[in-house]
Design goal:
The chain contains nine helices and no strands. By secondary structure, the chain is an all-alpha fold. The N and C termini lie far apart (80 Å).
Length: 240
Amino acid sequence: MNYDNFSKVANNQERDLEMSRAFPALMRKVYTWMAMALVITGVVAYGAGNSPAVLQLLYTSRGPLLIAGLAELGIVWYVSARINKLSLVAATMWFIVFSALNGLTLGWIFAVYQIASIAKTFFITAGTFGTMALVGATTKKDLTKMGGILLMALIGLIIASLVNIFLKSTMMDLIVSGVGVLIFTGLTAWDAQAIKRNLLMAPDAGEAAQKIALLGSLSLYLDFINLFLYLLRFFGNNRN
């Protein structure tokens, strides 16, 4: 009898049992971290949108907003690239900083749109997001190929959005918004399935798995925020 092979099988079975028990708790952490980030973003955005000083600082020139946007991209890149070397506490703190900074740059929403329409759009987004996340987490169909297509479509969406900054076409803006809704609806399902797959493949239920959960919550947070922003273009009512 090959005791080495027997030991490996036993270890794999033990690890699978551990992960199956820890999986529900890890998934709850994914959505808890995401909800925490959304609350931070919402509170900061509300405060910024109702502060004339902050609005003047950020929106009288493009410089401060550009710096904030680059800082956000830098944080996402840093956390994603260094997640294996960062402690869980440090990665969580960076996520908090990112969500607060993102709230600062989204303060214009509360200055431009009526509170009722923001709330309505939020609930529409939450319903759409929740449905697609459930689909992604429960479907047996492999969504990997769909994810590749959606990522390519996202690149095209970014290019089209940049072009429309100069064209300032209302029709193109509506088309871009509609496509954006479809892309981030699909990405929500894809990310939910990817998070489930990555957690089940984690070596154990320790810090490594929790870091996977944290990165997953960041991905879903970004899906939610972008889906909300594109839907707001359809359901948002201006203050004036």
